[in-house]
Amino acid sequence: MNSKYETHEHDVLIIGAGGAGLRAAIEALSQGANVGVVCKSLLGKAHTVMAEGGIAAAMANVDAADDWRTHFRDTMRGGKFLNNWRMAQLHAQEAPDRVRELEQWGALFDRTEDGRILQRAFGGHSFKRLCHVGDRTGLEMIRTLQDRGVQMGFDVYMECTTTRLLMDGGRVAGAFAYWRENGRFVVFKAKAVVLATGGIGKAWPITSNSWEYTGDGMALAYEAGAELLDMEFVQFHPTGMVWPPGVQGLLVTEAVRGEGGILTNKNGERFMEKYDPKRMELSTRDVVARAIYTEVREGRGTEHGGAFLDISHKPAEYVKRKLPSMYHQFRELADVDITAGPMEVGPTCHYMMGGVRVDAETAATSIAGLFAAGEVAAGLHGANRLGGNSLSDLLVFGRRAGLGAVEFAKQQAVPAVDSTQIEEAERAMLAPFERNTDENPYSVHSDLQQIMQILVGIYRTEEDMNSAMEGLARLKERVQRLSINGSRMFNPGWHLCADLKSMLTVSEAVTRSALARKESRGAHSRIDYPNLNAAWGKQNNIISLHGDQMNLEQRPTRELLADLQALLADEKGAGA
Amino acid sequence: MPDVTLKIFRGDREGGQTADYQVPVAPGMVVLDALHHVQKHQAPDLAVRWNCKAGKCGSCSAEVNGRPRLTCKTRMDSLPQDKPITILPMKSFPVIKDLVTDVSWNYKVNKKIPGFTPKAGTNWRMQQEDIDRVQEFRKCIECFLCQNVCHVLREHDKHEQFGGPRFFVRVAGLEMHPLDGVSRVGLLKKELGLGLCNITKCCTEVCTEEIHITDNAIIPLKERVVDEYYDPVLRLVRKIRGG
């Protein structure tokens, strides 16, 4: 071990401080482990803070008929049956307890008349199921978890970016990171590591995702040898802002439709009647996103290329109370009063269903000692995620990852880290300072976003994606030539050099998997293969690193247990 | 598109000065968009802290033309375009680099506050009207602009004796939680120095979440401190009741 690096040791190291990371940390702490949390931003600023609509949990506070079985069925239907069914089962069964726990840690959800947690309707959910606080549920959740963790005394390394996982043979041994403040490197040694780094939306220009969403965890895991699952499934949320240009993609919560919002085209037609007459605006996100996209493409879009979303038929005070941040967002950024008239909305890159392949019970990846939870992990949501199932995912599998990591750490000695890996990681980070080219990370990022938006968006074809693969290959060469100036101190251009490497890895994985899947399912829509294909419904795409090549293979899904099969039987195929 | 001039602070703990950048203005553009334009085309190393660019995370606080603002919510067309727009880091915190300040002091203050501790035997039923006022406090996104403008911190630099409006809001949220069972009144009086606040309402004016910090959090907390420490009648009542 090289003493020239600042070094910290923990039983469990958690990378990412959003809902999943914090919940994992709390669980590991409560088991008596020594826990470190490393995060790219300040504590409390992670992407979870942007979640709006609510946490899905079958508590049956509003609709007494709800139970985990229905939640399980809705999740599987929404995911077009490609979900890891065991994850969907555990998620539906455990979510209510995880929500109650938040309340016991101080969260204050909106209430029913009889003083229980209020639940609202959302797309694809058969009952009113989303526990919420107006439209700022994510903030309530992250603040509650953050306060709980602080109270329990975890060590948080803020504004510290991980660039490589360190290995001890086939087992994870820690992470190499750098402090953004001064650019100095730091080594974390740990018996177990939990990835909770979120998604990949920053590879697209029109996205609801924050600065942090550059696919770091998936790329770190992939480079360490872990498997990535079903990377083709990228969710485009139907309702992002479309005007003015600076806020394009900013999320308009599904709660607007949950509270009764209506979608129309420029001719005033309520077009969801054509696409899903049964569920209308509360159809699943893949269906609504394609509907809006199609309306615009066929010339029925609004002035700025979107659809109208109107909630102004509800009393103004009600709208301001249930959707306060939407009210402010449109008033301040778009000069629109949503209590008086419609919003203009269009699809925006929102969520990654694919990611690191994990075991349902323990959140273990295919690498010993490496765990993953939340958006960075894959399986629960299958081909399309239901709104509200993300926050519950973070809680259920964040907890399981924390437990899994502690159980693993208990049986292990402190791993050894050889200095070669660390020196390699350092050299890779410093290389952009040593080059003197005109290759700027911001231009490469823009070019990557254009490729993904135009060629690997909502609708895909083989021809487009082959062009995308060629474009990505050129970008990989340009990334090798990136050059940066200035000091190592809080240098965003330098940071982007590292982010680009991750974004390129995940973009290639998305494109390869999307090319391979010759069918349309959930969020993956192929113009050249417009229908579901039964054979593809029974296999996953698995990406892994072979030598220095990205390898893709198909693997059969696990056979659904008979009693769960029975739960789905009467509903199968509905709402395609 | 017309160009505007931004005067942006460039420097670090050692010092610095503003530098001028020309940026084209597009419809609906916010100050953070302009800063990103500068990063992309002129100064890739310009340090700006930001995350969501949606007014939800409270990362991109700065002083725009002398006003403490979230740069992601400050429209360029709300500022005079015929003269330069000056963007400086928050004054009450040490500069790390350019517009990024060291806000770690806030996290230290937060650690002093005992977290939510439920009363024994609660059934977890609460009425909406009993939590409305607490939900107001929990809207706080920790942009720290209230801390930045509070003169106890900004002019008098009493970071050691004073918690600041952000943490009075947090304590108010705990003290007024209908099911919380511990008192933080002693902490308010001693460690958090609530008495130093002379209710000039600067914090309320800059709150990006429109929380009525002074009226709804600070004044009721001051009343609790007075009741606990200075009310002779209550003191007598407590004595008689053996409290």
Number of helices of chain A: 16
- Principal-axes shape call of chain B: elongated
Low-confidence stretches of chain B: none
Largest sheet of chain B: 5 strands, mixed
The main β sheet of chain A shows up as: 7 strands, mixed
Structural class of the helices, strands and pairings of chain A? alpha/beta
Number of strands of chain B: 7
Low-pLDDT regions of chain A: 572-576
Q: How far apart are the first and last residues' alpha carbons of chain B, in Å?
A: 71 Å
- Order of strands, main sheet of chain B, comes to 2-1-5-3-4
**What is the number of helical segments of chain B per DSSP (H or I, 4+ residues)?**
10
Element pattern of chain B in H and E: EEHEEEEEHHHHHHHHH
Helical proportion of chain B, percent range:
25-40%
- Specify the CATH architecture of the domain at 424-538 in chain A: Up-down Bundle
What is the element layout, followed by pairings?
The complex is a heterodimer of chains A (576) and B (243).
Chain A (H helix, E strand, L loop, with lengths): L5 E10 L3 H12 L4 E4 L16 E2 L11 H11 L6 H20 L14 E2 L9 E2 L5 H16 L2 E3 L2 E9 L2 E9 L5 E11 L20 H9 L3 E2 L4 E8 L13 H4 L3 E3 L7 H4 L9 H13 L9 E4 L5 H7 L1 H11 L8 E10 L2 E3 L12 E3 L4 E2 L10 H22 L8 H16 L6 H15 L3 E2 L1 H19 L11 H25 L8 E2 L12 E8 L2 E8 L5 H8 L7
Parallel strand pairs in A: 1-2, 1-9, 2-6, 9-16, 15-17, 18-19
Antiparallel strand pairs in A: 3-5, 4-5, 7-8, 8-9, 10-15, 10-20, 11-14, 12-13, 13-14, 20-21
Chain B lengths: L2 E10 L2 E10 L6 H11 L19 E4 L2 E4 L14 E4 L6 E3 L2 E2 L2 H8 L16 H10 L7 H5 L1 H4 L10 H11 L9 H5 L12 H5 L6 H17 L2 H10 L2
Helix pairs in contact in B: 3-6, 6-9
